[in-house]
Write a structure and sequence with these properties.
The chain is of the alpha+beta class. The chain is built from 26 helices and 9 strands. It has 4 domains: about 140 residues, Up-down Bundle (Glutathione S-transferase Yfyf (Class Pi), Chain A, domain 2); about 60 residues, no CATH class; about 160 residues, Neurolysin, domain 3; about 170 residues, Neurolysin, domain 3, CATH 1.10.1370.40. Helix 1 packs antiparallel against helix 2, helix 3 runs antiparallel to helix 6 and helix 8 crosses helix 13. The longest helix has about 35 residues. It is globular.
C-alpha cells in the first residue's frame, strides 16, 4: 500500500490521507528518527552542527510534516476512525519526545558542541537552538535517576492522552446538543441572517423549521438577540455545562476526573524536576521571571480595571431595570441587554455593522493592509488539494517577488470541527544541507457563520478582529527569515510573547484609513459611513472594564490552580475559581456554570499556567502599536522595523531583546490602559 504520509510533498495530499495510513507512517518515521540519532551519536566525533544536529533536524522535520495534517484533520474533519488513529499515535510520539529529552549521550553531544571552539562560528539562531536544547534536556528529566525518568515518561504519555480526551469530550458534547424550533415566534428578535442559518441547519438535518446548536455562531445569535428569555437560559445552560456533571447531558462526557488527573500529573512532573509547582515549571520557557511577578502583574491590572468594570455592570443593571423592567439580571441576559444598551447609548447595532463586513471584502482588505505595511503581495492559488470545499489556499510574495509562504484559510463553522480560532504550522521554514529552502505553510482556522445561498458570510467586528489576530500569528510563522527549524517562525518563541504579532494586527481593525480597505456594504459596496464609524469608535470601550476583568479572572484562575495545587486536597478547581471571582469579577454566574470543563486552552492546549500570556502580550502589542500612532498607521519605516525585528526573527533571540530592538526600550503598560479607556 502506498502511504501518502511517507511521500515527500510540498503540501499535504489531504484527499489521499486515510486513517489507516496514520499509524504505519508515524511508526516508520519514529523508527527513522531513532536510527538517525543512534547513527550520528555513534559516528560523529567531534560533534558538529553539520554532523549531529542537522541530520536529526531532517528526520524530525519529516515526522512533523507527516503528523501535522493528521493532527489538523482530527480538529477540522473529525471522525471516529481518524480519532482512533490519532489517539493511537499520541503515546508513541510522547514516548519518543521523552526518550530524546532523556538521552544523556545526546545531551553531552550538544554540550560538547557548545563548549567547542567552533561554537563561536555558528550563527545566533544556531547558538539559541543549542541553548534551548540544553535547557529542554533538563526539563525532560535527563538529570533524574532511572526510576524517576521512567515515571516522568509515564506522566508525559498520560498527559498527552488526557488532553486529547478532554478535547474529544468537549467536541462530542458540543455536537450532541441541538434544539428544533417549529414556531418562528420562539426566535423573535433574531436577525434574518441568523434565521437563515438556523433554517439551513434544519434542512441539512432533514427537519422542519429551524435548528439551533452549540456551534458558536448559533449560540452567539441566541444570547445576543433572542427575545425569548427561557430559550436564552436553556441555550446558556447547555453551552456552559458542556462536558461536565451538570446540564442536559450531565455526566455523559464529563471532564471532571480528567481535569483532576491533569493537575495532579502536572504537579508531580514539576516536582520531579525540582520545581515547587507547575506554574513555576511553566515559566522556565517564558519571559516572566517568577510566579510572583505574574500574579502581581495580573492583580495590579485587576486593581486598575475593577472600578470601571463595576461601573459597567451597574450601568447595565440600571438600564435593564429602567428601560425593560428587568430587576433580576442573570448571566443569560447579559449579551442580550448589552446589545440593547449599546444600541440605546450609541445607536449602534451589530447587525448594521455586519452588513459592511462581508468576508470576501474583509479578506481582500486584510491583504491590502499587509501590502502597505510590509510590501507583501497575497494571491489565491486554485485547484489545491484541501480537506473541505470551503478551504482556500494562498501564496505570499515579498516586495522583491520572492515566495515567503503559503496558507490555508478555513473560515466557517461546521459539525465535526473543533470550535474557536487558531493558527497552526503545516510546514516550517528551514534550509537543508544542499541549500534547498523549505517554504513555510500555515493553517488559519476560524468558526464564523457560513454564507447563505444568496448572501456572503457577514462578519461581526469582533470576528474581523479574530481573523486579523490569527493572520498575525500566520505572518509570524510565514515571514520568518530564520533557516533553522528550532527557532524559525513561532518555534522557540517564549509562550508569553507568542501573542504579540497576533494582537498587534488587531489594531488595524479600528483605524479609519484601514477600515476603508476592509469594509464595503455587501449589497451596495459602499464603504463604512463616517457616522457608523464614529459610533463604533465611541462604543469601542463599551464594557471594556467588564471584559478586562473577565480575562483576568481566566488568567488568575489558570495560574493559581497550577501554583497552589495540593496533592492532599486535589485540584480545588471550582473553589479556586470562586475565590478568584470574589477577588476580580463583577458578574455573578449561576451555580450550575461549569466554565472550567470547556476551558480547553489550559486543559487541552498549550496555555496551562500561561493563559496570562494574552494579557502580557496585549501590553507588548499596545506598546508596539503606539509607535504607529506616533509615526502614522501605514508608516513603512515602522512597518519595516516590526517586520525585521519581530516577524522575521522567530525565536532566534529572547523576546525582550527583540522588543527592545524594535521599540528602543522595555514595554510599558500605559498604552494598554489608554486603549481600553482605563485611567492611568
Amino acid at each position: 500500500m502506498t502511504n501518502p504520509l511517507l511521500e515527500h510533498f510540498e503540501r499535504p495530499p489531504f484527499s489521499r490521507i486515510c486513517p489507516e495510513h496514520v499509524e504505519p507512517a508515524i511508526a516508520q518515521l519514529l523508527a527513522d528518527a531513532r536510527a538517525t540519532i543512534d547513527k550520528q551519536l555513534a559516528s560523529a566525533s567531534p560533534y558538529t552542527w553539520r554532523t549531529l544536529i542537522e541530520p536529526i533536524e531532517n528526520a524530525e522535520d519529516c515526522l512533523n510534516k507527516a503528523w501535522s495534517p493528521v493532527s489538523h484533520m482530527n480538529s477540522v474533519v473529525n471522525s471516529d476512525t481518524l480519532r482512533d488513529a490519532y489517539n493511537a499515535c499520541l503515546g508513541k510520539l510522547s514516548e519518543y519526545a521523552t526518550e530524546v529529552g532523556q538521552n544523556k549521550a545526546l545531551q553531552q553531544a550538544y554540550q560538547a558542541i557548545q563548549s567547542s571552539t567552533d561554537f563561536a562560528n555558528l550563527d545566533i539562531a544556531q547558538q539559541k537552538i543549542i541553548g534551548n536544547a540544553l535547557r529542554d534536556f533538563h526539563l525532560s528529566g535527563v538529570d533524574l535517576p532511572a526510576n524517576q525518568q521512567a515515571r516522568y515518561k509515564d506522566i508525559s504519555q498520560q498527559l498527552s492522552k488526557l488532553a486529547s480526551q478532554f478535547e474529544e469530550n468537549l467536541l462530542d458534547a458540543t455536537n450532541a446538543w441541538h434544539k428544533q424550533i417549529t414556531h418562528i415566534d420562539d426566535l423573535a428578535g433574531l436577525p434574518e441572517s441568523a434565521l437563515t442559518q438556523a433554517r439551513q441547519a434544519a434542512e441539512a438535518d432533514g427537519k422542519d423549521g429551524w435548528l439551533i446548536n452549540l456551534q458558536f455562531p448559533s449560540y452567539l445569535a441566541i444570547m445576543t438577540y433572542a427575545d425569548n428569555r427561557d430559550l436564552r437560559r436553556e441555550h446558556y445552560e447547555a453551552f456552559c455545562t458542556r462536558a461536565s456533571d451538570q446540564g442536559p447531558h450531565a455526566g455523559r462526557w464529563d471532564n471532571s476526573d480528567i481535569m483532576e488527573r491533569l493537575l495532579a500529573l502536572r504537579h508531580e512532573k514539576a516536582q520531579l524536576l525540582g520545581f515547587d509547582n507547575y506554574a513555576e515549571y511553566s515559566l522556565a520557557t517564558k519571559m516572566a521571571r517568577s510566579t510572583g511577578d505574574v500574579v502581581t502583574f495580573l492583580e495590579d491590572l485587576a486593581d486598575k480595571s475593577w472600578h470601571q468594570a463595576r461601573q459597567d455592570w451597574v450601568e447595565l443593571k440600571q438600564y435593564a431595570a429602567r428601560e425593560h423592567g428587568l430587576h433580576d439580571l442573570q448571566a443569560w441576559d447579559i449579551g442580550y441587554y448589552s446589545e440593547k444598551l449599546r444600541q440605546h447609548a450609541y445607536q449602534l447595532s451589530q447587525e448594521e455593522v455586519k452588513a459592511y463586513f462581508p468576508a470576501p471584502k474583509v479578506i481582500q482588505g486584510l491583504f491590502a493592509i499587509v501590502a502597505r505595511l510590509y510590501g507583501l503581495q497575497i494571491s489565491e492559488i486554485q485547484d489545491v488539494d484541501t480537506w473541505h470545499p470551503d478551504v482556500r489556499f494562498y501564496q505570499i510574495l515579498d516586495q522583491h517577488g520572492e515566495l515567503r509562504g503559503h496558507f490555508y484559510l478555513d473560515l466557517y463553522a461546521r459539525a465535526k470541527k473543533r470550535g474557536g480560532a487558531w493558527m497552526d504550522d503545516c510546514i516550517c521554514r528551514r534550509r537543508t544541507a544542499d541549500g534547498h529552502l523549505q517554504t513555510p505553510v500555515a493553517y488559519l482556522t476560524c468558526n464564523f457563520t457560513p454564507p447563505t445561498a444568496t448572501d456572503p458570510a457577514l462578519l461581526t467586528h469582533d470576528e474581523v478582529e479574530t481573523l486579523f489576530h490569527e493572520f498575525g500569528h500566520g505572518l509570524h510563522h510565514m515571514l520568518t527569515q530564520i533557516d533553522h527549524l528550532g527557532v524559525s517562525g513561532i518555534n522557540g518563541v517564549e509562550w508569553d510573547a507568542v501573542e504579540l504579532p497576533s494582537q498587534f494586527m488587531e489594531n488595524w481593525c479600528w483605524d479609519k484609513e484601514a477600515l476603508r480597505l476592509i469594509s464595503g456594504h455587501y449589497q451596495t459596496g459602499e464603504p463604512l459611513p463616517d457616522t457608523l464609524y464614529d459610533k463604533m469608535l465611541a462604543a469601542r470601550n463599551f464594557q471594556a472594564g467588564m471584559m478586562m476583568v473577565r480575562q483576568l479572572e481566566f488568567s488568575l484562575f489558570d495560574f493559581k490552580i497550577h501554583q497552589h495545587y495540593d496533592p492532599d486536597k486535589g485540584g480545588r478547581i471550582y473553589p479556586t475559581l470562586y475565590q478568584v471571582r470574589e477577588q476580580v469579577a463583577v458578574v455573578k454566574v449561576p451555580d450550575f456554570n461549569r466554565f472550567a470543563h470547556s476551558f480547553s486552552h489550559i486543559f487541552a492546549g498549550g496555555y496551562a499556567a500561561g493563559y496570562y500570556s494574552y494579557k502580557w502580550a496585549e501590553v507588548l502589542s499596545a506598546d508596539a502599536f503606539s509607535l504607529f500612532e506616533e509615526n502614522g498607521i501605514f508608516d513603512r519605516a515602522s512597518g519595516a522595523s516590526f517586520l525585521n525585528n519581530i516577524l522575521e526573527q522567530g525565536g532566534s533571540q529572547d523576546a525582550m531583546t527583540l522588543f527592545k530592538n524594535f521599540r528602543g526600550r522595555e514595554p510599558s503598560i500605559d498604552a494598554l490602559l489608554r486603549h481600553n479607556g482605563i485611567a492611568i
